[in-house]
Structure prediction request, 499 residues.
Amino acid sequence: MKPIDELKRRLLEIAHLSSALALLHWDQEVHMPKKGGASRALVIAELTGLIHQKLVALDVDRVLTKLQLAVKKGTLKGKDKVIVLETARTFERERKLPEAFVRDMAETISKAQSVWATARAQNNFTLFRPWLEKIVALKRKEATYVGYRASPYDALLDAFEPDMTTQEAARILHDLKDFLVSFLKELQSRPQAAKQRLSLKATFPIAEQKKFNAVLASEIGFDLAAGVIEESTHPFTTNFHPHDVRFTTRYRTDDIIHAIGSTIHEAGHGLYEQGLPAEHFGTPLAEAVSLGVHESQSRMWENMIGKSKPFWRYFYPKLKKQFPEAFGKITLEDFYHAINRVTPSLIRTEADEVTYNLHIIIRFEIEKELIEGSIAVRDVPLIWQSKVKEYLGISVKDDAHGALQDVHWSAGLFGYFPTYTFGNLYAAQFFAAMERELPVTALLAKGTFGPVREWLRKHIHSHGKRYTAGALVKKVTGEPLNSRYFADYLKKKYRDIKK
Ligand code: ZN
Prediction:
């Protein structure tokens, strides 16, 4: 067997095990009975260990080394070259981490998460503090093992947004912060129209909501013959193969907008996964480029499309028809204003489009400094409070609504937060490029979503990891990632809403 075919065979084995693992996680969140947790954790640990073994065995018989040499010599090109380079990237990272370290990290994280949950419930940062200190120390150690050029945070960011540097991320986010802080003040200085205070609360039977959400997801193109929609406390998307992609959403009886937002967001992730080329399954060519690019797909559908007027010009009559009591007397214009209210708040997951990224910037600035060692864990609550006051203009009432609100740090996810904002920036940049080629507004108003979905498929989904995120955004939009398109999008939309 040729070395490249041998590598593909080994990768496919890993992909099959990973699909099984993903199915176990899916079941755990969606169907597993309460008492199943402990035994499930053992099955997951067993399978995770097996996958790790297969990963570190990728270079047995020097298969990978030989292929990397062929790439260097220029004898291996095109898609095969991408497979080798991207596999080598994962392999190198995995190989550099000693097994004892991986075990220590896994154990610490699993204990820290339950301590964090208690600390948050009791609003007690001191309880979580020693655990966060241990995790920060371990993450700094991880950065040393993996290696970095300028900042240890580089090594952590790279796991989620390959090739993005701390310096570049800091520059992009700093530009965005300057804009957002002043733009928020501008919006707040304009009086709030009565229609923006309109409440959309009513009673929405869950069965009816489910019907509406399924129609929504399938009309924008989520293929229900290759996908499933279920419920869970924290909505998420998972995939076993481009032909089996699943996501969850969450329903509240008094609020349908919440479920609609989650559904469109996750369907956006799902469309990306369904759009990956099935013929390359198992290789990096059928994997998403980065978390930032993944998030761009969910946020473009959720916000730029799903909270736009043309989109609701098409869907609002349907919503009214299904829920006449709640929406019968509310005009499209009033509905549109109500779903696009801008109000600074303390909780990230409930933030609007304008203030959301300030929440992320606060987390990025703090975690970067923790990893670089320029601030200490014990200072986090106070730094958090002062940044929230400075950027959002509001006061943090307690740590449960401050530094303890997110699960990420207890799960060891340092370097993850900025990808949420990169997602918004990529989305705006891709969307502007799409608008140069397609009459997007007119298509959305007619409910003709096919051309939009196909554009995303052709330019983004179908490539898998063929291009790095940096190369992809340049290829599709002609520019490196920047905050200008997102700022322009917000200005146009919200100056019109608050005129
Ligand atoms: Zn998402």
In short: The chain has 21 helices and three strands. The domain at 166-496 is CATH 1.10.1370.30 (Neurolysin; domain 3). The radius of gyration is 23 Å.
